[in-house]
Amino acid sequence: MTEATAVTEALYGVVGLPLRLRLRHTSVDTAELTEVFLRVRLAGGHVGWAETRGNGAYATHHTTGGITAALAGLPPTTDPAWADPAALAAGLAAHCPPAAALLDIAWRDATARAAGLPLRAALRGPGSTDAHGAGPGALPTHAPIGFGTPAEAAALAATAAGAGFGRVKVRVGGDPALDRARIAAVRDAVDRAAGTSRTVAIAADANGGWTPDTAIAATHWLADHGVAWLEQPTAPGDLAAMVTVRTAARVPVWADESVSDAASVHAVADAGAADGVHLKLEKAGTVAALAAAIDAARARGLDVGLGQMDCGRLGCATTAHLAAGLGVAVAELWGCANLAHDVTEGPELRGGAVHLPAAPGLGVRVSVDPARLTPVGTPVHTADRARTFTP
Q1: What angle do CA 21, 26, 28 make, to 5 degrees?
Q2: Sheet with 348-350: strands ordered across
Q3: Helices 287-299 and 262-271: crossing angle, nearest 10°?
């Protein structure tokens, strides 16, 4: 690290991002995304940002309070530990991966800006080029279909297919009869909207909401409707239940909440519990740990998807750069689709793909006022939480 890229300031705070429609699935019911932000400044003046979901403990097992407490527990930036931010983040990942992800990404954003490189290029190394075939910085993404009536699901799916999405992902895991009706409605809607010129893939995500028997029965009608894979059909951590489902399933089974790092990927592979894994930086903690998990999955012959919590555009830009930089073609990149307001001007969504700017770092502009943030190493109280959006 050069003198110009040394970290001289690190500030954190909480921003409430309101949703147009409540987020509902088997593990959550909320009208807001509670996002923890971190801002890092380098000695040379370059600034990096990161955000992570605070009210997503159902997936990360860490609350807003736990994440901010981890940041409050960091040493001040004058401490020698900040000479190696990557090592500091790796240590933090051992007890709070979402907080570690904030530190790792904010620092990488700042240093990529200092180097004049988009983060995805910095991750790939010198001489690399954009992949995925959708144009420079463009990555296809899923369209999410949340819980609702079959008619509501069909309308959302038709809109997505008409807008150019090549994949939709439907939340299931509740009443099997209602879920079956919604999947059927989605299949009919995307086929009508796409016509004969292309096929829109459907994935289903149960978020651990079914018993093995219910999940096995569901795979029959999921297969009948051409569903590409079923994600996390049974409770996280119960690999025996997933093995039971996968053995009898008529569609591929993917693990999500059951995997976080390379060790858990190997555990899933050893058990024969899944055909693929859906990985997230928020669970891995650092880019290095996420890359190791991806490498482990590929080495074990598992399909790999990269996801994110529902989040703002800053988080979406992060996942898109990770997908491009780490070469993951199947990815959820647009968790901001349901936001009523955001504090980031970021990537654009066109034709079912996220288009990343060629600007250095994450290439986004964050409008959170630094004066409302708190230096790391300083506790922030719930009553003082920064809520910087304009309703």
Answers
A1: 50
A2: 138-140, 353-355, 348-350
A3: 20
Task: Tell how far CA 238 is from the center of its chain.
Answer: 22
pTM of full prediction above 0.70: yes
User: pLDDT tens digit string along 320-379?
Assistant: 999 999 999 999 999 999 999 999 998 999 999 999 988 999 999 999 999 999 999 987
- Residue 16: closest CA among 4, 34, 28: 34
In terms of Cβ atoms closer than 10 Å to its own Cβ (0-12, 13-18, 19+), residue 355 is middle
> What DSSP character marks residue 21?
E
For residue 253, which of 271, 277, 270 has the smallest C-alpha distance? Answer: 277
Q: How far, in Å, CA of 48 to CA of 106, rounded?
A: 5
Distance CA 264, CA 266 (A): 5
- Other Cβ atoms less than 10 A from the Cβ of 4: the count is 12
Query: Taking a C-beta distance cutoff of 8 angstroms, is the pair 319, 308 a contact?
Result: yes
Side chain identity at 378, as an amino acid letter? T
Angle (nearest 5°) at CA 371 between 356 and 346: 10
Q: What is the dihedral of CA 126, 127, 128, 129, to 10 degrees?
A: 140
Q: 34 Cβ partners below 8 Å, 6+ apart?
A: 14, 15, 16, 17, 53, 54, 55, 64
| CA 187 distance to own-chain centroid | 25
Please give the Cα distance from 333 to 97 (Å, whole number).
20
- Per-residue model confidence as pLDDT tens digits over 240-269: 999 999 999 999 999 999 999 999 999 999
Q: What is the largest CA-CA distance in the chain?
A: 62
How far, in Å, CA of 248 to CA of 127, rounded?
A: 46
Structure tokens at 86: 């990557």
**Of 173, 147, 141, 178, the residue nearest 160 (C-alpha):** 141
Residue 32, helix vs strand vs coil: strand
